[in-house]
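MODEL INPUT / OUTPUT PAIR
PAIR INDEX: 1
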Amino acid sequence: MKANQRDYAQAAKRAGANCRLFFFCGQDEAGASAAVAKLIGHLPEAGERVDLSGGELKSDPSRLVDEARSTSLFGDVRHILARVSGEEAHDAIASWCELVDRGEVTYGWPIFIVATSATDKSRSAKLLIKRDDALVAIFYPPDLRSVTSDVRAMADAAGMRLDGSIAETIARAAGMDVRLAQSEVDKLALYLDASPRAPKTADQAAWDAVGASTEEDGFMPLVNAALGGELGKLPRELARMREVSLNPVGVALAMERRAAQLATLAPKLRRGDDMKQFLRANGVFFKEHREVGDQLMRWSGGKLERLVPRLADLHRSLLANSQTAELLLARELTQIARYAAARR
């Protein structure tokens, strides 16, 4: 089965218990991850989570089926969550399909795969699209309107009434990332002591007290310094990150979104194209023309193919090492900036 970010929940509901493997891909990794979390939350009993990486599945394709069929020492319920890049899970998925078709996996724990930089046209997705026991969902970069709507729904669930344009402000501050938006809504609700039983109104003063900087003021100067190879500017931006307590995962996600944007634009750019006209024709925000144009010149298709999975690995490392996240991020951004600077 195939769906998108708007109808994946309905497709999963229609499929019911028959659907055992969920492959969520596309440029919006944050949206795909949030969707997976939502589906896992709706399982009758989620049980233990078994985390797998793309590297593990690529080096040992049988691992996916083994984990899906195995039981814990105490026979507890479990589910499988794999975070991969591109086609890292292809052979593992092919093995799963083959064994299911041969009747060797009559029952298996549900499998959720978030595939960064893969699409519904990828080889992995094509193995699953026509199957009744699998769901492929493609997640495109969200727009301001859709994320603002999501923020309002989050606020309603938390017992908050958002004043005026606060929902849009939160969406912008989270860089259109629904996970970061949820964390901002939760923080605001905690500050107001709001709950569904005791709703509160969130006004601008409350947001100013606890809200994050907008992405433009927060993440993007650091992202542009790294991807633009601005070695003189990067140390100042890293210092600012620590001073204003920017979320390292948020910075990494902003990097991923910009890399995904560059990966979408790069194949369309032809020699001799006027850069400003090209960016305008492809819907790039006019304030970002200089940075995006410069970065397109620095990161060709082949370089981007390596950058995108590297950023996905960085994201996973930051989540797994929260205590040293700032240090890990600073080291990786410095290496990326040095590579970009060498292409001046």
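PAIR INDEX: 2
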Amino acid sequence: MTHAALPGAPRGALRALIRVFNVNKTSWVGLAILLAVIVIAVFAPLFTAHDPLAQDVTHQLSGPSAEHVFGTDEYGRDTWARLIYGARVSLAVGIASTVIAMLVGSAIGLLAGWYGGRFDAVMMQVMDVLLAFPSLILGLVIVAMLGATTPNIVLAIALTSIPPFARIARAPTIALKEREYVEACRSLGYSDARILLVHILPNIAAEIVVMGSLWLANAIRTEASLAFIGLGIKPPTPTWGGMIRSGFENILDSAWLAVVPSLAILIVIFALNLLGDGLRDAVDPKLKNEV
């Protein structure tokens, strides 16, 4: 028995995804915006001639100009340069924490759904306890205890995101393990690990990816919130949340310092939501049949 012959195995996933995206064209908008932000962040030196850490006391809190498109902050640092270099931090922390949450949460959900019984009950109770805390509050507690370093911030955000991935992996695993092809795999002596990784995981991966696109937005927002309250990556490293915090202190004199990074976060979250809608449509059986 080969995986390609299994019922429900994903076929022509890329073609189906493109077809659904063509129907839900706003998904292309979200994808384009997200890719543009990633390219600008990765190749930041190509999009600005200014050093994000360079101070110029002669141009403190200067308004937008030809030299400084979005003005400068209280230390005379170029806001545009700090914005695009800050995108690196926000995207890196968001993507890393979301990937960790996807891997750990999916593994917990798969094992809980597959083995059931007491293990399932205990793991889901642990997930319920984590879900009882708002993500920002739980992240704040973890960072306050461990320290505001990049690895700790990633760990804190990932921990708050694990329960949703565990939940979304568990439910279809319970349904799929009763399917005929899984019973056939068992009769052939396949190990649990092989059945889970080769025959069940590919059939639920799309739902996990959709959840990942939505929780990436949550991770970016949480990182910015932690930075805003002073528990993010320490200055002078540019971060969007840190820029908003700094801009808020000068909101009456230089409103653009807070508005610009706030709009950046809004645009990225908006793009991820549009992209998530397209991915959701691609994996929704009812919507697939309409395409």
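PAIR 2 NOTE: Residues 79-115 form the longest helix (37 residues).
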